[in-house]
Structures are given as C-alpha cells and as structure tokens.
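Notes from the pairing session

We agreed to fold both candidates in a single pass and log them together. This is the raw record for the first candidate, unedited. Please don't reformat it; downstream parsing expects exactly this layout.

Candidate A
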Amino acid sequence: MINKAYNYLPILAISTAEMSALEQLPDKSKDLLLPVFPLKGWVGSKTLDKTISRINMSIGLRPWIADIDSDFVFKNKKYLADPKGQRSVFREVHKLLEPANGYVNWVQYVANLDDSVIPTLQTHNLEQLGQQIQSLSALNRGLVVRLKIKQDGADKINTIIRTLIESKVDKLLILLDFEDIKRSDVLQSEQYGMLVSRLSKLLPNAIFSTSASSFPSSFSGSYRGELPIYERQLHTAVCKLCEGVRVIYSDRGSARANKPNSGGGLPPARIDYPLKNDWRYVRKEFQDSSNVTELEKHTLYKEAATEIVKSNYWNPNLRVWGVQMIEKTVELRDKYCITSANRATAVRINIHLYQQLNYLCDFDALDTEEDWED
C-alpha cells in the first residue's frame, strides 16, 4: 500500500478541526493522500473505537497510517495521578504503549483493524525491537518507522536502522519527523539530505518522507501578514540533495507539532488563507476577550474574511470547502460560517491540505468543484 503514488503524508491530530478539514476534502483528493493518525481518545469518548469511527468518517475506506499519541498518556497529569479515575480510553491507549513481548498489545490491536491500516513501529523501548518488526511485517501491510530527529539520539536511530537491515523488511517507509522547526532548520538541510542519502543506501527498498511544522504558536501584536512554510522549503532542499530517492512530503496540516497550552480568554478573530509556500492571515482583536457577544464575533470574522477575499492573493477559482466557508463568512449567509477559532482552524487546514496535495498543479486548470454538506 505504501508503494502507491501518494505525494502527501500529513500527520493529523485526532481533533475536531483536523477531522473536519480532512472530511471536507474532495474524494479524488483523499485518494492521493496517506494520512498519519497518532491514536488517542476522541473528544470526550470513553473508548478508542470512537476514534477509529471518526477517522473512517473523515477519510472513508482508504488506507491510513496508525501510530500512538504517547503524550495523551505520558503528559496527562490527571491520568498519571489517578489512572482508574479517568476515562477508560486512557488505560486503553496506555496498554498499547506497553513494550512487553515486542509491543504485542499494539501488534494485536493493529491486526484487528481493517487490512488497509498501515502500522507504525513503536520505538519508546527498543529491547525487543526485532520481534516487533517481524510481528508487524507479518501483517503484510507495510511498515512505517517514524524517527524523531530532534528527540531520538544517534545511538537510538542507529539501533533502529541496524535492526531494520537485519530484519530485511520489504515494504518500508522511513518518516523523518523534525517536529516544530524554524528557518535555522532549513539552513541545515544539507546534513539532512546526506542523512536520507545514507539511509537509502542502507535500506535501498525504503521510501522516505520528511515532516515538520513551522506554524507559529502566537500571532500577538500583528494585524495581518504572511508566514513562510519552512517545512516545504526543508523538503525541497532535501530532495535536491538526494536525487533518485523517493521522498514524500509530510507536515502537520498547518498545525503545530507540539500544541501549546491555550491561554485564558477567547482568542482574537483570525482567518488564515494558505498558499503553496506561505500562510496569509488577517487578525481582529475583540474589545474585551472575556466578554464577547455573538454579534461582535460575527462582525469581526466577517471583516477578516472580507479583507482576505479582496486581497491580491485570493484565488476565486479554488473551489474547495475552506474557500467556500470564507465566502459564506463574507456574506454571513448562514449559521455555518466562521464564528470561532476552531472552525477557522478547520478552514485553514482544509485549504492547506489541498494546496500541498496539489503543490505542482495549476489550480486554474483543476476541477475542484464538488458537492459538500455541513
């Protein structure tokens, strides 16, 4: 399944914004996309099967890559202090992270999912890594290995690569995850390109992918502007340095890799408009973020949307759900227009996914019109 001609592997969080954005993509776009879902509980659900149901609703009966969101358990102070007092989904995810017998719980869990679901190797504990590789490979779905370049030390990465070579895995995807990055990371692209080249010689049958996010955690002090998509720059530079190696683009769908804790008060009304190489945005401040009326929300989101639609970067020929939502907000056509930060995030991610999926295409020549429902 990994060998199919996918050109985009976004790592998407299990959240309402990401799932809605993906769900509203045209079906023909979903066919070319292979998302990575780090599994955790869905909103307030008690069991992990609700998460799988929401993923299936967003992408349909198509292949996707399954990983585990370890932060859901290991960075949850309430759960760690009182495991039995929290929703059972926390214990369910925690069980998948147990390394015993080559992560046998994880292997069995993936085995019970649809055959189109591709597993990710768990590398928190490497003691029985070879056993886990053999067990997951035996599912015959392919294997994804996610190397967290900034977190995993050289010794850990060497151990993983050496064990993969010894295991002679056929269908293999190596995902180099740089997580949150800045411009300085792009300047180091030569060493990352050399890394991919070395790995491709050691694992000649492997496909590679680079993933990162440069979306800012704060927009304070700015009214409007543009932000370069450094993850796209990093990927382009790496590809130039290792010609002949298949390297697929990946990112966080225009979300942060490590999401910051939200502060107090309602965030300002901001609408983002993704382009292929940068994000444009317009931001409007509420008079008092602790006391915002529905009228003020509608008014400021309408003002932001209107400014974007009138800008020189607006493309009226891009007919995807996120664009239509911005147009609805300009007209305040119905209750489904953008009136919250969460909906604005879903709109941005939807447009970003489409832009990056069709990075090499001329949008004016594409048929992006598709019927959709709220």
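Candidate B (folded immediately after A)
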Amino acid sequence: MPLGEAEVFDALGPGGFGPLVAAFYRRVRADDLLGPMYPPGEWAQAEWRLRAFLDQRFGGPMAYSERRGHPRLRMRHAPFAIGEPERDRWLALMAAAMEEVAVSDAVTEVVAPFFLMVAEGMRNR
C-alpha cells in the first residue's frame, strides 16, 4: 500500500527530513548556480527552514508554522531570480541527496512529485 503524505515523516525514521536536508545543503553550498543565492551566514537558518517545512508538510511537528507562520513559498522566494536552470539544479541536487541518504522508494514516490511541483512553482523568470 502506498504511503500517504502524512506518513512520510514517520517512514523516514529518526530525524525526519534532517539527514536529507543536510545532504542537500552540502551540495548547494558548493554549487556555482544556487550557492551564491544564499547570504553568507544564513546556511543554518536556510537548512532549518527547509527541514522544518518538509517535516511539517509530511506529517511531522508544526515547528515551521509556529515559528514563521504560513509558508508563503512563492512570496519568500520572489527576491531570487529562479528560472529553468535554477529549478533544474535544485531538483538535481535534491535527487542526489535523496540517493545519498537512501530515501526509500515509497517515500520517493510521494516527495519527488511534490519537489517537482514546488520547484516549478518557484520559477519567476
């Protein structure tokens, strides 16, 4: 039976999306296209935001909304120039991170389409 979205957090095990997000941001920091979009000194906050957002979206604690309110993803990303190259790189780095931490096929079936939808929705160029 396929996983429901609310079951993904538990299916990931201890740490929820933490290991995936850490693997993703290790790649982003070294990336020539996405890395420069992040202000120096903001890495820990960016990592927390993505982890907390994904944990909450997929059945985990509500820490993101408790601390930041509604996600408003498009509004929060509006200051950044995000076109097809940025979207594609984000998806590639996330896919590599998912492979690194061995995200199960059941979880991938749920989160990969979501990542594609969100990445496309962030495009503003």
